[in-house]
Amino acid sequence: xxRLSWFNVVSLTVGFAFLYIPILILVIYSFNESKLVTVxxxxxxxxxAELMQNEAFLNAAWVTVKVAVFSSTIATVLGTMAxxxxxxxxxxxxxxxxxxxxxxxxxxxxxxxxxxxxLLFIGLNLDRGVLTIVLAHATFSMCYVSVVVSxxxxxxxxxxxxxxxxxxxxxxxxxxxxTLPIIAPSVIAGWLLAFSLSLDDLVIASFTSGPSATxxxxxxxxxxxxxxxxxxxxxxxIMIAIVTLGxxxxxxxxxxxxxxxxxxxxxxxxxx
Amino acid sequence: xxxxxxxxWDDPDQKPLIRFKSVKKxxxxxxxxxxxxxxxxxxxxxxxxxxxGCGKTTMMRMLAGFETPTSGSIELAxxxxxxxxxxxxxxxxxxxSYALFPHLSIWENIAFGLKRSKMPKGEIxxxxxxxxxxxxxxxxxxxxxxxxxxxxRQRVALARSLAKAPKLLLxxxxxxxxxxxxxxxxxxELMDIQEKTGTTFVIVTHDQEEAMTVASRVAVMDEGxxxxxxxxxxxxxAPNSVYVADFIGEVNILSGHAKPAGDGLYAVTWADGQPPxxxxxxxxxxxxxxxxxxxxxxxxxxxxxxxxxxxxVEGKVLDIAYLGNLSTYHIALAGGQIIKAQTANxxxxxxxxxxxxxxxxxxxxxTAGVLLDQ
Lengths: 272, 374
Hints:
Oligomer: heterodimer
Number of helices of chain B: 8
Distance between the termini of chain B: 41 Å
Helix content of chain A: over 70%
Strand order of the largest sheet of chain B: 6-7-8-3-9-10
Largest sheet of chain B: 6 strands, mixed
Largest sheet of chain A: none
CATH class of the domain at 54-228 in chain A: Mainly Alpha
Number of strands of chain A: 0
Shape of chain B: globular
CATH architecture of the domain at 54-228 in chain A: Orthogonal Bundle
Shape of chain A: globular
Order of helices and strands of chain A: HHHHHHHHHHH
Structural class of chain B: alpha+beta
């Protein structure tokens, strides 16, 4: 183990303090007895209990999860298809234009995306609700999936697909049996990215949601305007816990796979 | 007793398995294959040999169905396969990178092609086991490709491409990734397997030694053209051009003008102040025609005293390359030309008779070299 110099210790502390003190404060105050957010009155979990009684928040949370699951699934299917065509389609006419157009929404201001979707839904006479949020989220997160998947496809050895065709697989079978299983990690990564984008989106959701369906970010945002309540702190703490758990699990799985891969390779060299 | 020589290309009644009919292939402005015709026969081990970019890989990809000819046709067993997609051809390919499916076990890799056909499950299992036995991979069938060594991966790739018993097996630089020793062993293994299965093999390689070792016939290619198609011995001993002579093995080229000397012999004047060399040729040359004499280093004898030979020239030892089994001498002639001569080191630790700067005589017979006009 190398010893850190004083300078390194200080920069590490300052950096992490900058990142995590706001979150820490939020977590601590979620266990506050007092209703006043800024006054500490002892430890309690009563706000968590109260949160479980709050129908409005629970509904919003349920809507958010539903929207995130559906929209990221749609976005993953469409984004993977787009990536496949753009990377594998060869140099068909308009390829440059298409690839530019797929990535354009990445840099488009969310307000504009939200507004144009709102106008579209009004024009189509679609009642705003879960369906419209799902469509809106799928639209903007699809490009993120496409970026992630095409990065993987570019390094994909094309000979693998050719080998599948050569062995008698139809082009669709080659994709389903060879390409898809191999690029699966990046497809899953794309899905997770789309899922988390959908979870925390406020701007686009506020344009496309209606009275029948409100997502959690919208609910929190409007509640905070009436004053921060300890209930919201509790809710946020739960969300932080879920995210942390997810990140730790993912990194543990990655680490374990890396170790296993290394061991396999050593074994292969010894037995050859 | 007379043994049957395998030479279907000499028999006019034999029908070729593959027939390229004036095939041309262009990629944009670049012509990869120029008006090429070629017959390959059943049970042949045919090598496409040439430097990178000569079009050999394009030929193979056209056979596999990944490229279609710009013009001309390719026939497999008498049928035009130009429009048949790769998954409908009874042609299988072994890829240079092996292209093993990393997410499938060795067993599943080999079974992949069989499962795509309508073969019953029991037969698939039997066939995969047979392939595993043939390539000595039984122990590794449950492993994934990254869990075995390079040589084993090469055998999996071979087993996978042979599993469907194709009419034609294509091998794209199959041994390029192996080290030299393993490569040589594997060459013999390939020949064994080819003989056992009776499959027609077409191999693409840039390694002339490999082509000579494994192939029944070799096609030497350059810039999208076939330079010569013949048996390894003919290609080596009777090349039809300086390009082929130079590409296969080492060769000395003496360029000059021919003068018929009767009896199929020609006197070639090749340098000022040197006597003409005498060379035999089956192809007639006219008086004063520009010719090149191609002669292999091992057919040039080296001696201290002037030998009693038709062709003898004097020179100085410039360099000696000791290769263990052979020694190659670079001899500088009076005109500055360098000729390579090779001797076999048949005796152990014998004292070398010649050393640097020694004056020596080189000699060869009239039939030792080949006269070429291009």
